[in-house]
Structure formats: C-alpha cells, structure tokens
C-alpha cells in the first residue's frame, strides 16, 4: 500500500484484498451515495454527517500503513487529518484481468425494471445503488427494483448501464427480447385484435404518452417536451462511447419524431 497526500486529495494505492478488508468495506459502505466508481478506483467525497466515520477510517488506515512500513502511526495520522476536507481516492495498484459479472434486466412494464445479479456482489450492487438510489423502490443484496416512470429515470438508468467497468469488474448486462419494447413504448398495452378498428382517439392518446404530456396539451408544451426528450435520446450522444445502445436510442428517437409530427399536424 502507498498513501500520497496531495493538495486536492488523499491517494491510496493498494491491492484488491485490502479494499475488501472489513474496516475498508465499512467505510465505503457508509459513503455509497457520495462515491464515484471508476475503472480500477473509487473516489470518496467528504460528507459532513460522516466526519467521525472518516476519522475512524483514517486512524485504521494509518495503523495498517504504519505496521506495513514500521513507522509512527500517530505522526502519520496527524498528517492525514490535516486533509480532512479533501476527497479520498482508493486505486488498485495491479491491472488484473477484469472479472465478469452477469446482471439481468427485466421490465415488468414501461415503468418498472428489475435488476438481478447472479450472485451477491456488494461492489456492483453499491455502484447501481449510487447511480439509481433516487429511483430504487426496494432491493436486496442481489436485486433492485427501479421506478423508471419518467424520462429522467430512464436516462439515469441508461447512464448507469453505459458504465460497464468498475474496479476490476466487467459488468455484462443481459435482457430478453421484450425488454426494450416494454421499456420504451406502450405498444404492449394495445391488443392486436383491435388493429382493424378505426380508433383515432386511442392513437392520439398514445402519441401524448410518448411525449410524456397530458392529452390536450398545448403546442408549446408539446414542443418543449419533444425538444427535451429528443435531446436526451438522440443516438449521436452515445455513438462512440456506447455503440451497443444505439439501437435502443434510435427506436425511442423515432417514436418521439412520429408522435410529435402527428400531434403537431392535428
């Protein structure tokens, strides 16, 4: 382990076994909401309500480090406590082969998604919680149920799924053929037995739903919602960093264009 005290952070370089030590895991568990997950690292920001937890962690860290290097624990601790307002970055010192973690996605409907891990992994589940906590309805050590009933929640989910490498884990997301159609459209709510019925009101109601506007919304409200959603779901946004999501964004973007064109002309 190496600890470097910089002007803007405390940098801890260590192996993955130390990252999984009980005192290290407890500290990181407390800071899940204020933690940034990175490839090979986590960045923990200062939390006013967790000052005591931070000081206890720095004390344990100092003892661990001093025992490894045979120097005064108290002197080093005093030095670290002077950096009480700075973030703490914990970085893995070995480039290990990423461990593949399979995560399954299931859409109950367009408003609710179930995220399930094959086996418990606190690092991956904490990453997902840190990204989606505002929208998590309930969860266990292997699953989360997420409310994605508005475009902001869906956009947050997509951003979370776009990051597939955290620490030394490579996350592989899987989902069935119905996941996208349930999540991004309301087609599933219509019976194919009614395809031959002329029901213009139903179709218009569907278009309002696509644009996330109440039926009868003004042209100005439709235009504002369309611009906001089109910006959020434009395929060009993820062309380079997340090419595997282009198909999903394209489908949603085309639905938005169809709905806006139909309602603007009505």
Strand order of the largest sheet: 8-9-7-6-11-10
* Helix fraction bin: 40-55%
| Uncertain residue ranges | 187-199
Q: Give the rounded overall mean pLDDT.
A: 80
Structural class: alpha+beta
Q: Tally the helices: what do you get? A: 10
Record field, number of beta strands:
11
Largest pleated sheet: 6 strands, mixed
**Assembly context of the chains:** single chain
Q: What is the overall shape?
A: elongated
Strand residue percentage: 15-25%
What is the string of helix and strand elements? EEHHEEHHEEEHEEHEEHHHH
Rg from alpha-carbon coordinates: 24 Å
Give the terminus-to-terminus CA distance.
Answer: 67 Å
Task: Compile the SSE list and pairings.
Layout (H helix, E strand, L loop, with lengths): L1 E4 L4 E5 L1 H4 L2 H9 L4 E4 L2 E4 L6 H19 L3 H9 L6 E5 L6 E9 L4 E6 L4 H11 L3 E4 L3 E5 L3 H12 L2 E2 L2 E7 L3 H6 L15 H11 L8 H15 L12 H20 L1
Parallel strand pairs: 2-5, 6-11
Antiparallel strand pairs: 1-2, 3-4, 4-5, 6-7, 7-9, 8-9, 10-11
Describe this structure as you would to a colleague.
The protein has helices at residues 16-19, 22-30, 51-69, 73-81, 122-132, 151-162, 179-184, 200-210, 219-233, 246-265, and strands at 2-5, 10-14, 35-38, 41-44, 88-92, 99-107, 112-117, 136-139, 143-147, 165-166, 169-175. It is elongated. The strands form two sheets. The protein has a six-stranded mixed sheet. The chain has a five-stranded mixed sheet with strand order 1-2-5-4-3. The model is unreliable at 187-199 (pLDDT under 50). The chain has 266 residues and is of the alpha+beta class. The protein contains ten helices and eleven strands. 44% of the residues lie in helices and 21% in strands. α2 runs antiparallel to α3, α8 (200-210) packs across α10 (246-265) and α9 packs antiparallel against α10. β8 (136-139) and β9 (143-147) form a beta hairpin. The N and C termini lie far apart (67 Å).
């Amino acid at each position: 382990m190496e600890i470097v005290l910089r002007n803007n952070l405390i940098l801890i370089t260590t192996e993955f076994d130390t990252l999984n030590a009980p005192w290290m895991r407890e500290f990181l568990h407390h800071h899940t909401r204020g933690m940034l997950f990175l490839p090979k690292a986590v960045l923990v920001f200062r939390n006013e309500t967790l000052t005591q937890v931070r000081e206890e962690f720095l004390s344990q860290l100092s003892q661990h480090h001093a025992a490894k290097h045979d120097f005064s624990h108290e002197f080093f601790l005093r030095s670290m406590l002077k950096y009480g307002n700075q973030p703490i970055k914990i970085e893995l010192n070995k480039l290990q082969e990423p461990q593949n973690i399979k995560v399954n996605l299931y859409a109950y409907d367009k408003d609710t998604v179930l995220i399930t891990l094959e086996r418990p992994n606190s690092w991956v589940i904490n990453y997902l919680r840190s990204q989606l906590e505002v929208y998590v309805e309930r969860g266990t050590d292997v699953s989360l149920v997420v409310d994605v009933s508005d475009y902001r929640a869906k956009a947050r989910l997509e951003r979370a799924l776009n990051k597939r490498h955290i620490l030394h884990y490579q996350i592989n997301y899987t989902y069935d053929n119905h996941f996208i159609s349930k999540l991004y459209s309301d087609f599933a709510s219509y019976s194919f037995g009614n395809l031959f019925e002329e029901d213009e009101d139903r179709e218009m109601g569907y278009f309002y739903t696509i644009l996330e506007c109440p039926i009868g919304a003004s042209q100005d409200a439709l235009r504002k919602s369309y611009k906001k959603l089109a910006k959020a779901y434009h395929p060009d946004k993820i062309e380079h960093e997340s090419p595997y999501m282009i198909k999903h964004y394209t489908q949603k973007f085309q639905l938005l264009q169809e709905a806006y064109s139909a309602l603007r002309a009505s």
